[in-house]
Amino acid sequence: MYMELSHGEVVKIWSMNGEQSNYWLEATYTLGSFSPTKLWLEGVVGSTVTGDIAIDDVSLTFGPCPADATCNFEGYLCQWNQVDDDVFDWQFGNNGTSSSGTGPALDHTYGTEMGQYLHIEASSPRVPGDMARIESSPYPAGGRYCFEFFYHMFGTSIGTLSIYTKASKQDSAPLELVWVESGNQGDLWRYGYTTVTNSAEFTIVVEGVVGTSYSGDISIDDLKTVAGDCAPTGFCDFERNFCTWTNVFSRDLDELDWSRNAGSTYSATTGPLVDHTTGTSSGFYIYTETSSASSGDKSWLTSPSYDATTTMQSGGRCLTFWYHMFGPGVGSLNVYIALDLQGSFAPGDPVWSKSGDQGDYWLSAFVNITAEQRYFIIIEAVHGSGFAGDISLDDIDIFEFPCAPQTLPTLPPIDPPTQPPSPWDCDFELNWCGFNNEADLRLNWTRIQGATPHSATGPTTDHTTLSPQGYYVFVDVDYANEGDHKNDAGRLHSPTVTSTSEDGMCVSFWYHMYGDHVNQLNVYVQQRDYQTTAVWSRTGSQGQRWNYGQTHISRLGDWSIVFEALRGDGFKGDIALDDIKFFIGACPTTAICDFEEASICGFQDDPTADFTWRRHQGNTTTSNSGPSFDHTTQTSNGYYMYTEVSSNDLVEGSKARLISTMHPATVGKCVVFWYHMYGKSIGTLNVWSTQEGVTSSAPHWSLSGNHEDLWRRASFQYESIVPFQIVFEGVRGFNVAGDISIDDVELRDQNCELPGTCDFDVDSCGWVNAVDDHFDWMLYRDATETDNTGPSSDHTGNGLC
Known about the structure:
Layout: E1 2-4, E2 10-12, E3 38-40, E4 81-82, E5 91-93, E6 117-120, E7 131-135, E8 144-153, E9 160-167, E10 176-182, E11 190-197, E12 202-209, E13 218-227, E14 246-247, E15 259-262, E16 284-288, E17 298-302, E18 317-325, E19 332-340, E20 345-347, E21 352-355, E22 363-369, E23 375-382, E24 391-399, E25 436-437, E26 445-449, E27 471-475, E28 489-493, E29 497-499, E30 505-513, E31 520-527, E32 530-531, E33 536-539, E34 547-553, E35 557-566, E36 575-584, E37 592-593, E38 604-605, E39 613-617, E40 639-643, E41 655-659, E42 666-677, E43 684-691, E44 694-695, E45 701-704, E46 712-720, E47 724-731, E48 740-748
Antiparallel strand pairs: 1-2, 1-3, 4-7, 5-6, 6-13, 7-12, 8-11, 8-13, 9-10, 9-12, 14-17, 15-16, 16-24, 17-23, 18-22, 18-24, 19-20, 19-21, 19-23, 25-28, 26-27, 27-36, 28-35, 29-35, 30-34, 30-36, 31-32, 31-33, 31-35, 37-48, 38-41, 39-40, 40-48, 41-47, 42-46, 42-48, 43-44, 43-45, 43-47
């Protein structure tokens, strides 16, 4: 931008060069002229066609622009001024300083020899202790700002760089030190920041002090102030910028840069549609654009330098972040600890790594960081193949303590894209989001952080952040005088939901049900004064982990969801909820088919068979045959599939076949399912497969006869070089007491264990409690409740026993 004065002189007053990322940026400049002026906006073409420059919303207002320390020193000082009470001035520089062995070769803004920065030249006539200062425009009294900057302090005789605040209207006011760094910090740009404030109107002063010799040049670049206090070290949601994280500009270390973006990436079938922080297409994240990348190209994102963790009382730090790796060309994402060697990086082996397509979801990662000397954290994306390999990051944070041991939650389905947020979503991090307790009940839901009050029940972290700092809600079932309070209820009502789509709405949530006395969690729909029967239910301990739940609501109009927790026989029965979401349409397909939805996961009856499988709740129509509850929820509200054999048209040997959707070719999957075969006339349950319309020559699994009134687990290994379907075949016995049922069908990406093999780290692997004994075996973690008996940990070493 140029200003043309009335006598014809044209003065450049503002300039910006190079790519500034794919979003609108605000620029301001305070005009000072006592005569009429004209403004010129000039755009200069770059080297190729991909160099469009755009402007919008130009405005002129009376009075000076708000104080803003933002400056990249590309030819002018912006709103900074040299001061008179120092010894010498800061100088513009580029392509190195005049002294060898000190100063930067590249600026920070562009990472080029052409880019400019500000520096102090320590060569003669300077002597040790000489100081140079620049001062910002004034900031209002009481204002609080985060002052961010990049600094370069490389050389054997580096002095001191200091940041002060100063009361601007008091000539004799002392400087107040808010940040300082001294000595050689290596041949690289480092990020600095500090919160600045003053009870009076104030300015920011940046001071460089010469060291003991000429090899002591200090440089600064990319100064900026943002309203409000600075965020904690290491944290970044990328909503405004990269915070403390930076790209590495040396092509000796990486080939690609991380870019800040909102909405979808440039390539279809890869990258997120929304960020993780806001869950919207207007929220920002960072990603590696792989459209023009070569296989193996790397992108390094580096943290600030941290002190050795051996100096910390906690003994380590915890790095957390959310990542998105979706697309057939996705390579790998790695985390390194790189020792700070004063100008070079020395990364070792990755301390965390993930490769390949992880689905169209934001996923969380937790990495323990330990180092015996000063270090950086490097997050590296490595390109796989093709254009559909974008890798994204969001919501990075670093805690001053090690990560808590994580029990990985059950992942939700990975097929559909991340859903945009609704007005009724709640992660309970800030408040209740309009959810409320039903009055006049014995139990209430409580919003809480960390572990619940009692051991051996309830979660230790929330689900959103998987940390003790996150919030969730739970029902505390402990009473001072217990008495007989089994089935006492606590009900949590959602805000009123308005549904106008004939596709209905999916309600998803994460639940935690762990403890000897856990009873039941039910979900209802309430519309005006009418409350449905349970549309979703779970009974009993579901393991010491967060589990994913969802249910489809087809009702139109205004309604609310009711979560009901029922108390069991004692205090070890805490039930918790977190991350409740609402979105229009059918619920996504999950990895396990529990037949709770009417779509039955795409299974279809074979029209050429003698009869059909039925989706059912509770008891079958024939006494002394079939289950009284499903396997998933262990209640009469849950659904399962069964063969109803009481029809007069059926004879011994009649068959019903249930065929799955088409699955892709696989080098090995474990097909797991639960079956119920109870009755004096049970026939046979066979499991077949079909490939390209041809049925397997023999069943992969088969069982006949009465196997008691129990749900039992079965599995078999399967592989196919072509797409395939799984077929469940029920064969009728000699009379009506022969109902056969299945539930919870799952194809796992792992080898099946031999029947009976179990480490109890996830579930009981098909081992079931007998019904005719006095009490039950329980999955347990850590020490038992009674002192001087039982183990303090499991034998496997992974947690549960």
